[in-house]
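Hi V.,

Quick status before I head out on leave. The structure for the redesign project is tokenized and pasted below; the design run finished overnight.
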């Protein structure tokens, strides 16, 4: 009895804490920690971008013959990339670039164009994955460069250049 009572109290405390932190984040000045919605979005998009980059490295490396060709790994990387591409835009909501973020304000002022750039990658990656699935590396290789080009197509306008 006592035990379940204190468990309930603890759950209540946890609940009110999370409500508190959700309210606290309403005040501007986003921080890079995940306690704010903007901070959580920033961490999410970094994770998505790092996986996207990892998959692109595998795909591009095999296409340029810098990594030994592995048909199974190639197919999987193209399928994974297509899935991850569909997760990009949700990493930019709600709007905000916490410290450390390289997102430019244009992401949110040109939101529909930004979404289009994400769709460009999604479409290219879906085409690449479909070609790899049906015809293997030989059928997909010619689509790799175009897919990789959509990364820069977005970064050029929406990501700060490295110093
Ligand atoms: C729709 C736009 C868009 C597309 C498409 C896109 N990126 Fe990004 N990417 C961004 C933005 C914006 C940032 C900066 C995010 C931030 O710091 O807030 C970023 C950040 C990154 C980062 C840095 C992640 C980190 O550790 O902080 C890498 C790596 C990256 N992108 C790789 C890629 C690769 C590879 C592709 C293509 C397969 C790609 N991106 C496609 C917009 C895009």
């Amino acid at each position: 009895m006592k035990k379940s009572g204190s468990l309930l109290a603890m759950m209540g405390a946890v609940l009110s804490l999370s409500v508190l932190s959700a309210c606290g984040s309403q005040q501007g000045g986003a921080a890079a920690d995940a306690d704010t919605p903007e901070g959580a979005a920033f961490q999410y998009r970094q994770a998505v971008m790092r996986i996207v980059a990892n998959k692109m490295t595998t795909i591009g490396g095999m296409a340029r013959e810098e990594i030994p060709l592995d048909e199974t790994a190639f197919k999987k990387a193209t399928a994974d990339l297509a899935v991850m591409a569909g997760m990009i835009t949700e990493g930019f909501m709600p709007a905000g670039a916490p410290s450390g973020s390289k997102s430019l304000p244009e992401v949110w002022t040109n939101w529909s164009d930004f979404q289009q750039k994400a769709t460009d990658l999604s479409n290219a990656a879906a085409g690449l994955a479909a070609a790899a699935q049906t015809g293997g590396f030989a059928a997909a290789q010619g689509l790799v460069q175009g897919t990789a080009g959509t990364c820069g197509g977005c970064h050029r306008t929406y990501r700060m250049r490295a110093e």
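Above is the designed sequence. The chain has a mean pLDDT of 87.

G. will cover questions while I'm gone.

Best,
W.
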